[in-house]
């Protein structure tokens, strides 16, 4: 009996499979009330790039959007208004501060004096001067913020030169650029809520902090491959913090290319119990997939391997991780 040829490692799914997933995903998103269980099941397999719905899927999986489509517009307007208020409160503009000071001066009892309410040079403090080198001044913070924004803009245009979105010629592109900042802020907050204890210094050495998370990974490896765990931590004395600290705190963004990372995040966000346990299973699967090389290696070679994880078939990696559930 003839069989279809096996796809090479890392090859994308067949076109007909992608089309089927796209149609099912679009159908799920077209309902008046989204079935989140169904959405998680579909997204866990990877959101097809051609469907152009990943932003909406992630917003739903993160809880940023309610499952009732009728509430989307209202919820988005509220969140974006809230973000605008945050920016106004926390991102100080020195020029605006100076203008407010000038207005206050004009209203003061010296408003009728010769300076007409403007500050004398002697009245301008070092912290208020635009050329001040103080790191805590409003001007310094303003310039640093502006430089960061410019650097991000240059990096995006350099790494994605084919993305016409950044041209900003259409009103649609411009409006979505503004909304993307607010949406990304709240989505990132929701994402980090599932890992917040890993970033709390006071909890570092507790059962729920980063050391506790690393211990859970060690226990998971011992459960499914005791020989590998003993070789790594006893024979070669490679503790999880030597490599998995970066894996966990950066959500594997430094171990794989952008496209593979996005696929992994589709799976992470689809877990109804939260992304942390799924992340640990993926980390465990990463070790299992290179176990032969690890068992044959010493401290130096194994550490180099784990800190520079080799290219792998992401679909197979996620399949192995799912088997550990």
TrEMBL record:
GO process terms (BP): intracellular protein transport
SMART domains: TBC
An example Gene Ontology molecular-function term: GTPase activator activity
Rab-GAP TBC domain location: 48-272
Stored InterPro entries: Rab-GAP-TBC_dom, Rab-GAP_TBC_sf
Protein name per its UniProtKB record: Rab-GAP TBC domain-containing protein
Organism annotation: Oryza glumipatula
